[in-house]
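#struct-help
A.M.: can someone run this one for me? Single chain, 123 residues.
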Amino acid sequence: MEWGWHRDDCVQAIQDAGLPLPGKSSCFFCPSMKKREIRTLYHQYPDLLERALAMEDNARPSLITVKGLGRDFAWRDFIVFDQAQLALPDAFVPEERPCSCGMEGGDSGCLAPLSLPPKQQCS
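D.P.: on it. Structure tokens below:
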């Protein structure tokens, strides 16, 4: 700030020096985090995520105007739903998974494995 630089000036100076751009810096329990940043905590900093979830769990019984750290959603609910989504493909054996490629016309672009019965491939 003392140099009168703006964010773009800082980014350019870092790139000119051949350095990688640093990630966003914020508290690990920042209510302004985007969902992808919460996922980063889940995958790379599970200890910090657990601390944030403990804080949220502690506050939730008293919350009136917000649902959790995400303001309009609770981080814990987001994590539970995200984990459930990741488990969905494992509910089917690969040979029985329905085609969900959205392509029409079978041979004209369907991405379903050729081993699937025709009724499960795009028609």
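A.M.: thanks! The radius of gyration is 22 Å.
D.P.: also worth noting: The CA atoms of residues 30 and 69 lie 7 Å apart.
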